[in-house]
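Project standup — Tuesday

K.O.: blocked on the structure for the chain from last sprint. Re-posting the sequence here as requested.
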Amino acid sequence: MPKDHSEIVTRLTVGNLSCGGCVARAETALGGAPGILEARVNLATKRADVVSAGPLDLSAIQAVMDQAGYPVTPEAKPEIAEPEEDEAAPLWRSFLIAAVLTLPVFVLEMGGHLYPPFHHWVMATIGTFPSHLIQFVLTTAVLAGPGRVFFRHGVPALLRLAPEMNSLVVLGTSAAWAFSTVVTFAPGLLPAGSRFVYFEAAAVIVTLILLGRYLEARARGQAGSAIRELMGLRPDTATTADGQRVALADIQPGDKLRLFPGERVAVDGVVIEGETYIEEAMITGEPVPAPKGPGDTVTGGTLNGTGGLIYRATHVGADTVLAQIVRMVEDAQATRLPIQSLINKVTGVFVPVVLAIAVLAAGGWFFLGPDPITALVIGVSVLIIACPCAMGLATPVSIMAGTGRAAELGVLFRKGDALQELGRVDLVAFDKTGTLTEGAPKVVRVAPEPGLPEAELLALAAAVEQASEHPLGQAIVAEAAARGLDLPPVHGFQSRTGAGVEAFVGDAQLRIGTEALMAEAGVAPGDLADGSETLIHVARDADYLGAIALADPVKPDAARAVQALKDRGIAVAMLSGDAEGPVAAVAEALGIEIALSRLDPAQKRAKVADWRKEKRKVAFVGDGINDAPVLAAADVGVALGSGTDVAMEAADVVLISGAPSGVSTAMEVSRRTMRNIAQNLVWAFGYNVALIPVAAGLLAIFGGPVLSPMLAAGAMAASSVLVVMNALRLRRMEMR
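H.V.: unblocked you, prediction finished:
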């Protein structure tokens, strides 16, 4: 989503969502609103993503959703979203008030059951009617105060003939309260054997459900903590190069900023002056700080060490790496797996079915049971225990927790389907250059002629290459600088396109380049060829001095990445546009058996399509613009965060650090998250299937107990909390 580039995705905040049934009804209402092609509502994030062919008429959509009972507002899009309001705090206050009011009701009514002398004491000192009156006042306060949230949402839903979780609570508590009120004020309307009050059931139900909602909201907040932690990395202000403090929002590209020791980088930029070490674990996953000096890039949110810098801002606001990561995590947490559509359809009809079961069960026990009390208890218990909250939360909370932990591990799931599909992949194909290798040439060998020191050959070559812009020449210069070599002065520099460079050191002419350049000068190079290397030959006048071998080195963790996939039983392949020699060398070094070379983007895409026709589940890992077509064609496209924006836009998963070992991490996150979702669904559905018949009096038919409404409320709240707590285990996920 969206399906093509002409479609627009708009994110809305949705109110009054409390269960899976609400999600189904909100989606149906949104889908029928003018201009909307598709809608997906997420219970855990309380948001909806809607697809349209053009700009939306928001006022028309809001009118439709107000009528449906699920008001929507456009989600604010600041440069980096502010932390959301804490849902748990007001719920905790409501629970405390309800608990204080409920405790006397519970003690007055249930104390005698726990300790019979207490009942006699109440009857002797307070009396039956005053006791019932106290319970009536306190319970009414619970329902009208902390419990009014259920009535505010549940009653309109009932009037719209679209009952949901709040409606079940309203019906259950109202039935218990109304029956008890009649017993208190008009007992003559009921048979003598039925004059029992159930105020404590109504009060305890509200209190327990509020407690469950508080625990659920608190746990959901923990599931979404990844975004808050990421946003917490940005400083609120920065210091300009001339020492003035400015707000983050006031920084513009090109501004010069000063970074003090121990301070976080404000925005993305390039170092102008100074040297330091900066911890970039949030981007690279590497705990070792990276050295920074003039010309190096710095990333907003990373932590400076003991040095100081002046840097020029290049990307600010929504364009910074941190802001893009936050957006990707938000998008991942708002996505919905294909299985959730089926769950929402089930929960959409679940509440009406439960109402029918409650009416049938209560009616059956009323006419066939021992007394009306049993019918009341059974009807209320069915209404309370059958809430589909756990079903609605089973998938989205696991996604929030799993994708949040994945972001901390350097993996961003851009599309929800990838979270489900990646764990099923049985073949991973890598691009070579920039993916398995560093993507830049480096000197791997210096081979001087006998009698010539290695350092002298490298220094002569680097002295000439200083004036060259060719990547191979720059790699030679970088190697000489790394070794601290002194370079002789040169003059008369000349570049020979496609062949090499020439210059004079004193009166001697140096030629550095290909065999063809050597042959032109009548110089015979040594036989040093290696298919995996590029040789740069060096001659002085007519004398051959030796060669410098360069190669694109394999990334440090590439071998570990390939082996980790093999250990999982996953086939590994390499698709590269490079020549046979370098491709074969990398394949041999990494133990990759399927290695294809000289492939253009169309051929890579065709090869992936062939594998998919063979019923293989294929993931492709790449980093370049030319990888975008094959990334989009694979079952799951994985882009390196060190690659191009085009590749990342075409991918389903982004590895922030650019390390290929992140593929194995992403697959493990996918596998564990899907397993967690399966556990939640088994519990949520199994809970309802098992306990609704018990609440309807199945055990009582065979002489067993009738389920108390209070126990039903506790079990219902516990079910949702258990699902959320199980999902939170993903926040502690560690990779092997």
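K.O.: great, moving the ticket to review. DSSP finds 27 helices and 26 strands in the chain. The two ends are 33 Å apart (CA to CA).
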